[in-house]
Request: fold
Amino acid sequence: MWFTCEKELLENAINTVQRATSNKTTYQILEGILIKAIDNKVVLTATDLDLGIETYIKANVNKNGAIVVNSKLFGEFIRKLPNDIIMIEVKDNNVFIKCNKSEFVIVGNNPDEFPSLPSINENTMYEISQDLLRNMIRQTIFAIAQDETRPILTGILFEIKDGMLNFVALDGYRLALKSESIESSQNISAVIPGKTLSEISKILEPSDDIVKITFTPNHILFTFENTKIISRLLDGEFINYRQIVPDEYKLRVKVSKNELLDSIERASLLAREGKTNLIKFEISDDKMVITSNSQIGKVYEEIEIELEGEGIKIAFNSKYFVDVLRIIDSEEIYLEFSTSVSPCVVKKCDSNNYIYLVLPVRL
Amino acid sequence: MTIGDAKKLCPNLIFIKPHFKEYMKYSIKVMDILKSFSPDVEIFSIDEAWVDVTGCERLFGSGVEIADKIRYRIRKELNITASVGVSYCKLMAKMASDLKKPDATSVINREDVPKIVWPLPAEDLIGVGRKMKVKLNEMGIFTIGDIANTPLKVLEQRFGKMGRYLWHFSNGIDNSKVSSAEDKAKGIGNSITTPRDVKTYGEAGEVLMALCESVGKRLRDNGLEGNVIEIMIRTKEFISFVRQRKIYNYTDTAFEIHNEAVKLLRENWNEDIPLRLLGVRVTGLRPSEGFKQMSFFEEEKRIKNERIERCMDIIREKYGYNSVYRASLMVNEVKSLINIVSDDEWKPMNPFNKGGGNL
Reply:
């Protein structure tokens, strides 16, 4: 193998595929990146067997071939090189990297030992913009379960139903549901691992460029620009989330998102000190009082609201509110309550494409 | 020797139930005697403690004299015997106390370590368990002296941190202090050696429930809740291990502790290996806040169980611990264990074992 390419291109490609290399593995080969030079292209591949990323760059290939290099070492060296043309050559498993007056030799691994990514028939395709996919991930992923008690909840439900694309995440204590219309007559439901989506969202750009999505029974494939991302799907049935979302409420509060966020963030400073994150809401007529007590002090916050219905006293884990208020894209929001032991539903005032539901704390 | 083995050898052997409450009573009395000699008393187990008598010589005499006085008082006041080790550090004091039993004072001076300690078999050194013994023997190390004379580097390479400890210990180097300050409880736990081998998940689950009930009650009594659940098991072959997991929400109920403990057990144990000992411990403690994050799952079950446990607490306070127990524990003999459970604090013998003791 022998090729030359631009440093910046190679660096970006490494950054992209590196997200799939495994850090903790018993298979040493998986700590590597497979580099393949074919004609005028160089293809980089990395996988941890759950997630696989493949991307290609344009290059001047003098001799076709392939090698596996340690991802961390290779990546760091390329990153530290000046912005210039890089030459990479493989001789008897030794990888020679030259740029200006720098030369670096590392031992490579046999490319035949590198696991190939599952081949996927790119038939059924859904298309959405990078920006939209990025937002759908961002507005739901924070609500996935952090522990493995119910493995299915460590993923996000990808559901296409009746022309709507729904992303659903829930961890047992709260639920985030983001919907967008999509042009598709086919219904589908699959659960994508949180890690996969988290890595994808870091690769996606806030642009209108298209991402193509393909499913097999066990895998999902995302294709955009020069990059392919393949991920295993999670086994099992997702929780029937529609059952959890209440369609009625006893009182509804209209409040400015930023005011609420600022107040809760101040209140949670103390709640955090006490390691409890407990904040209390007292809603009456035209105001909402937020308080928090801990051994080191007290906070009292008052916000103007518009209230429909009777008042309520209810308590929450402040983190669950801060999480959603930071990402919800609406100036004004509705908070819907029924009782002090039933969920609060957060909605946008200007759109119904986002629902967040959080369970209170029993006092 | 296990009870089963003993019965095989001696079919007519008569077994007598232990009296943990009595043991505890005597233990406290012994510790009180020790505390009358020095304020620095570190209680290591029900029948072991360290006393730092530095600076007490003018009051009570030399270390040996104090040791003899302690033995005399324990024998005279409580009519039991004790062996006392006198040395310059905790480790060697413990080794000395094991030299001569049941009623003697033994001394190990710093310069006597090679003469007295080194000829002892390696497994007499604290930190050398059955597995470690085998590994050391494979390396041609049979006595404590062999360990001491093996280059530190070799031991470190082979055993890591543990190797470093062993080398220091075998050379009589132990700089730890006798700490009388009651450790702020890092965890609350109970363990039990079962009268018969435990061979099924069902049985193990019941034993765990008995343990969890006790742990839950003690958490509530102390106004604590924790978010790390730990189990300990020991097989018939005396291989023991500890597994733990952090849970998302803090808990103080037997129900939730048991849920997690059973999961840990199922992930780490197969029914074909008979068990001798089971333990449950809760760590990551904080003062109980009195409120609970609600969940989409099993919320009603959880609330019901909290009520049941609170109710059982009140009944037990009024009528005694054994006045009420779960129906699931009635079927087998597990209920007879509850008694023991309530007294037998989980104190791992080996201070290197994760979760207990310090040296």
Remarks:
- Residues 340-359 of chain B have pLDDT under 50 and may be disordered.
- Residues 118-170 of chain B form a domain with the DNA polymerase; domain 1 fold (CATH 1.10.150.20).
